[in-house]
Amino acid sequence: MRPPRLMKVFVTRRIPPEGRAALARAADCEVEEWDSDEPIPSQELERGMTGAHGLLCLLSDRVDKRLLEAAGANLKVISTLSVGVDHLALDEIKKRGIRVGYTPDVLTDATAELAVSLLLTTCRRLPEAIEEVKNGGWTSWKPMWMCGYGLSQSTVGIVGLGRIGQAVAQRLKPFGVQRFLYAGRQPRPQEAAALQAEFVSIPQLAAESDFVIVACSLTPATKGLCNKEFFQQMKTTAVFVNISRGDVVNQDDLYQALASGQIAAAGLDVTTPEPLPTDHPLLTLKNCVILPHIGSATHRTRNTMSLLAANNLLAGLRGEPMPSELKL
């Protein structure tokens, strides 16, 4: 009797060990992995996808119509090691009846912790202070030197009060924040109640917040949301933080706002493009802190994400309910 044909799975990057182990134990799958921490070239991705039944990808892998055509009719499941899905051509995927798994919830805490870290780092000017210690700029104690902005008695505005936005607010509350504002597609009274957060328009949030934290999804409605008009509405003492997606911000407008003193400072964990070119104007500014998209970068979180992505993929291939399926 002929043994059953194995299902081909292609993994676009070297993933954390718990996910790799789950795939290795799958006796009904033949797993091919791009064994590198660096992105797979598009030609190699198309080659690897040919005839594949399942794809495990990252947010940096663009899964478009061309790649789906290269994969062919066997492709049944795409599992992304991310909560964001803006790298997936969802309309094309839906047309083909392909199921999609993603990794919500498991990265909420780590990303919220990073958001608070980035906010404090930016508003208290820590990179500047560290550099002054190293370059000899620290000469004595001076009353006005290295002064930043504190959270006590402040107003914090959150664009997008989803899982991550709520987790950020919960962590900021003990710092003595006086008032929380939030904006989004619609009010979320149940979620806002615990924080006593007020639903306001985007212009009101920009105008009244001492700290603006962007935690929304990237959609056609939010692309370029934080632009010249947005920054002009902000206080000159306000601090802006983006942990969502780079395309939510017009980076040229942000540069002008920071360079001209229209706003006090900005902290970014996401940019457009990623990685940001080393000669980008934002990197010349002392009042702009940029991190390399490390919101979920704890050992535990990345391992949990990889295991969930692997289990989503395997469940989809076997026609079973996925632990976290994106409903198309």
Description of the molecule:
With 328 residues, this protein is an alpha/beta fold. It is built from 12 helices and 13 strands. It has helices at 17-24, 42-49, 65-71, 90-95, 108-123, 126-135, 163-172, 189-193, 202-208, 228-233, 251-259, 299-317, and strands spanning 7-11, 29-33, 54-57, 77-80, 99-101, 155-159, 179-183, 198-199, 211-214, 239-242, 265-268, 288-290, 325-326. It has a 7-stranded parallel β-sheet with strand order 8-7-6-9-10-11-12, with helices on both faces. The protein has a 6-stranded mixed β-sheet with strand order 2-1-3-4-5-13, covered by helices on one side. Strand 7 (179-183), helix 8 and strand 8 form a beta-alpha-beta unit. Helix 1 (17-24) runs parallel beside helix 12.
Structural classification: alpha/beta
Arithmetic mean of pLDDT: 96
Beta-strand content estimate: 15-25%
Order of strands across the widest beta sheet?
Answer: 8-7-6-9-10-11-12
Order of helices and strands: EHEHEHEHEHHEHEHEHEHEHEEHE
Distance between the termini: 39 Å
Could you describe the largest sheet, including whether it forms a barrel? 7 strands, parallel
- Treating each run of at least 4 consecutive H or I residues as one helix, how many helices? 12
Unreliable segments of 5+ consecutive residues: none
Shape: elongated
Backbone CA Rg: 22 Å
Per DSSP E runs of 2 or more residues, the count of β-strands stands at: 13
Query: Helicity level, as a percent range?
Result: 25-40%
